[in-house]
Design a protein that fits this description.
Two copies of one chain form a homodimer.
Chain A (H helix, E strand, L loop, with lengths): L7 H5 L4 H6 L20 H7 L4 H5 L2 H15 L4 E2 L6 H5 L4 E4 L3 E4 L6 H5 L10 H14 L4 E6 L1 H10 L7 H9 L1 H25 L3 E5 L8 H16 L8 E4 L7 H6 L4 E3 L6 H8 L4 E6 L8 H15 L4 E6 L9 H13 L3
Parallel strand pairs in A: 1-4, 4-5, 5-6, 6-7, 7-8, 8-9
Antiparallel strand pairs in A: 2-3
Helix pairs in contact in A: 3-5, 5-8, 8-11, 9-10, 9-11, 10-11, 11-12, 15-16
Chain lengths: 351, 351
C-alpha cells in the first residue's frame, strides 16, 4: 500500500472522512485510526528506531515522517498521527527530561516551587523546526489522508513535572493543587500556553485535526477536574475553535465527559468503560465520540474482536459522529495484522 | 488508648456502630476505618514487621493480632480489619506465591490452562488455623470495636493468577476471559469457592462484618463485569446473607456500582470519583455506601483534608447509611497523625 492511497473519502469529497466525522457530517463508515499506531507494535518501527533514542527520533524530520507514515501504509487507517511525545515541547523549551524505555518520561528536577514554574518558558515555533518541517512534508505525502497533531493537556503534563515521572496515583500532584492552588494555576496556566503554542505550530504547518491528550484526567473527581484542570484545557482548546477539529482524550473519564466537551472539544474520546451510545447521552445533543475498543481485547483472538468492533460501530450510531479508535494506546505486543483487519472490518460494515 | 476502649456506640447499644451503619440504622456519626490502616504508615507496624516476610506475618496469630490492634489503639477507629492479604488463602491451599516488597504478589507459575485451574483446591478451615485463632483472640481483645474480615474477589484474584502478578491493564486476564470463557468461569468459580470458604472461616471465628475486595473490577466495562465477574462475586456473597454485613469494594467503579450491589452487598465501596450522594442515587433506595476520601489528599495539609471530610460526611447523608473511609488504601508514606485527626473530626461533626 502506498503512503497516499487513493482514499475512498477523497474520491467522494475534498474533506477527509475524519474531519467530516469530527464535525458531525455523515460518511460511509466511521474513520479509523489507533492511538499509538506509530509505535512498537510495528516491526518496521522497531527497525527504524534501533539505535536512536525516543527524543532524538522526535527531533528528526526524516524519522518523524517515516514513522508517521508507517501505519498508514500498513493498515490503511483513515488518519495519520504525528509521531512525537507529549513531553517534546517541554524538552524543546529546556526542561530536563529523558524518556526511559519501559518507564516513560523522567524529569531531572521535579517542578514544585514558584521559581521552578517561572523557569518554564513559552514555546515558539523556532523551538521545534523539525516538527513544522515534518508536518509540511507529511501533509504533501499523505494526500487525502489527514494528519492529526497533538499535545499533552496541562493536568497530564503537570503530573509528570510534579511527580518527576509517571505516577499511579498522582498523589503529589493532587496534594500540590489543593495545598497550593495559586502555584498550581500558575503551573497549569504556563503549560496551557506551551500546549496551545505547540498545537498552533502544528496547525500552521498543516495538520487537519488536533488531539489534546489528558490521559490521566480520570484520576480526578469532577469537582477537582472542574476547578483545577478544565480551565487550563479550555485555554488550550478554545482559541483553536474554527481552525481544525479538536479531539479531547482521557481514560477513566466516565464522570468527566460533559466537562471535557465543555472545555472546547469537537470530539470526546471515550474509553471502554462507557458504551458509546451512553457516552453520547451524557455528552448531549450533537456530540461526536471517539473510541472505544478495549486494547486488552487485541490479544483475545479474532472472533472476540470482530464481535466487539461490530458492537462499537453500532453503539457509535447513537452519537452525531464516531471516530473508531481504541480506548487507549496500542499495546507494544499487539499483532499488527489484527489492527489491519479491524480497519478492513470497519470499512466493510454496512452503513 | 487501650485496645478495647469503652466505645461510645457500645455504651448506647450492643450493636457496633459499623454494623448499625451497614444495615441502614442511624447512629451519632458515620463509623470510620481506613483500608490498609494496619500497615506501613504506622511506625509500630514497621517495627514488628522488621525481619519477617509479609506472608509469615500473615501466618502468625501473634503478629496478626498485634498488627490488627495497632490502628485501633492509635487512631480510635470504629472497626479493626484483620491483618492479612488477599492472596493468603491461595498460598494456604498450595499456590506458589511470594509477596515482593514494592511489587505485590508474584505467582511462581501463572495459571492459564484447565490443568492449572484444576490444581487449585478449595480451602478448608484446617488450612488457615492461624486466621481462626487470631480472629477469636481479637474479638475478645477488641470488646465493642468490631472486627472486619475480608477476602479478594474472584476477578481480582484471577487477575493476579493469570498475569503472574500485579498488572496495569489486566490485558492477559481480559483476553483470557473473552477467548476462553469456559476456562475463565471454571477459574473464577473455583476462586469464589475459596473466597467463600475463607470468609466463612472468619465469620465462624467471630468477625462481625466482611469486605470483598474487587480492587481491579473497575478495569472492566459493565457488560464484561456482568458476564465475567459478577456471578462469581455473587457466589461468594449471597450464601453469607444474614450472617454478617457484606461490604463490596473496588476502585474506578462508577459504572459498576448497581451491579456490585446486586452481587449481594449490604454496603458498596465508592472511590473519590463519584460523590457519595450521587453514588447513593445510582445504587437506589436503601443503599449504604463506604468511602470516599481521595488518599492523595492525605498529603495536602489539614485545611484541605478538613474541608474534604466535612463535604464527604455531608454527601454521605444522601445515602441510607455511610461508613467513612478512604477511596482506596492508606499510602505507606501517610503521616499517621492525620488519620487520627480525621477520626476525631468525623466523631465530632454534628449529626
Amino acid at each position: 500500500m502506498s503512503a497516499s492511497p487513493p482514499s475512498r473519502e477523497t474520491a467522494e469529497s475534498p474533506t477527509p472522512l475524519l474531519v467530516r466525522a469530527a464535525t458531525g457530517r455523515p460518511g460511509p463508515y466511521p474513520p479509523v485510526w489507533f492511538m499509538r499506531q506509530a509505535g512498537r507494535s510495528l516491526p518496521e518501527y522497531r527497525a527504524v528506531r534501533a539505535g536512536t533514542t525516543m527524543l532524538d527520533a522526535c527531533r528528526s524530520p526524516e524519522l518523524i515522517t517515516e514513522i508517521t507514515l508507517q501505519p498508514v501504509r500498513r493498515h490503511g487507517v483513515d488518519a495519520a498521527i504525528l509521531f512525537s511525545d507529549i513531553v517534546l515541547p517541554l524538552v524543546a523549551t529546556g526542561v530536563g527530561i529523558d524518556i526511559v524505555a519501559g518507564v516513560g518520561p523522567v524529569i531531572d528536577k521535579p517542578i514544585r516551587t514558584a521559581a521552578d514554574i517561572d523557569r518554564l518558558r513559552v514555546l515558539d515555533a523556532g523551538d521545534v523546526p523539525y516538527v513544522a518541517d515534518a508536518v509540511r512534508g507529511l501533509v504533501r505525502e499523505l494526500g487525502g489522508t489527514p494528519l492529526i497533531g497533538f499535545a499533552g493537556a496541562p493536568f497530564t503534563l503537570a503530573s509528570y513535572l510534579v511527580e518527576g515521572g509517571p505516577s499511579r496515583d498522582h498523589a503529589l500532584t493532587k496534594a500540590f493543587m489543593h495545598a497550593e492552588p495559586q502555584l498550581w494555576h500558575r503551573l497549569a496556566g504556563r503549560l496551557a500556553e506551551i500546549a496551545r503554542a505547540y498545537l498552533t505550530v502544528q496547525i500552521d504547518a498543516g495538520v487537519q485535526t488536533v488531539q489534546l491528550f489528558d490521559s490521566w484526567a480520570g484520576a480526578l473527581s469532577l469537582a477537582d477536574y472542574t476547578e483545577f484542570a478544565l480551565p487550563h484545557s479550555r485555554a488550550v482548546l478554545e482559541p483553536l475553535a474554527g481552525r481544525v477539529p479538536r479531539i479531547h482524550f482521557g481514560v477513566n473519564t466516565g464522570e468527566l465527559l460533559p466537562a471535557m466537551r465543555a472545555a472546547g472539544a469537537d470530539v470526546v474520546g471515550v474509553d471502554w468503560r462507557v458504551p458509546l451510545d451512553e457516552a453520547a447521552r451524557r455528552l448531549g445533543p450533537g456530540a461526536v465520540v471517539q473510541g472505544n475498543l478495549d486494547p486488552a481485547l487485541l490479544g483475545a483472538g479474532w472472533p472476540v474482536i470482530d464481535a466487539a468492533v461490530r458492537r462499537i460501530v453500532e453503539q457509535g450510531r447513537g452519537a452525531s459522529g464516531h471516530i473508531f479508535n481504541l480506548g487507549h494506546g496500542v499495546p507494544p505486543d499487539t499483532d499488527p495484522q489484527v489492527l489491519t483487519r479491524i480497519v478492513e472490518l470497519v470499512h466493510a460494515l454496512e452503513p
